[in-house]
Write a structure and sequence with these properties.
Pfam families: Glutaredoxin. The protein is globular. A hairpin with a 2-residue loop joins strand 3 and strand 4. It has a 4-stranded mixed beta sheet with strand order 2-1-3-4, with helices on both faces. The chain has 4 helices and 4 strands; from the N terminus they run E-H-E-H-E-E-H-H. It is of the alpha+beta class.
Length: 85
């Protein structure tokens, strides 16, 4: 199973929704709160090809995108295969 990283802010409802979906899938993930680790914001933007909103989700080295992108992948049945790769 690939490592999963999600960049968040503690008060962000979209971050909560993305973490909830990942939790429902039963996968462990590493959460990086860019308010608590401000230096991680630049890393997130670089890894996300310039996207600066949270959450930003990575499965392995693949940039999935934000909350809407994560849910769209799930709706299309494409999230499970990524999680199992």
């Amino acid at each position: 199973m690939p490592s999963i990283t999600i960049y968040t802010k503690s008060w962000c409802p979209y971050c909560s929704a993305a973490k909830k979906l990942l939790g429902e899938k039963g996968v462990a993930f590493t959460e990086i709160d860019i308010e608590k680790k401000p230096e991680a914001r630049a890393e997130m933007i670089q890894r996300a090809n310039g996207r600066s909103t949270v959450p930003q989700v990575f499965i392995g080295e693949k940039h999935v995108g934000g909350c809407d992108d994560l849910y769209a992948l799930d709706d299309r049945g494409q999230l499970e295969p990524l999680l199992q790769a």
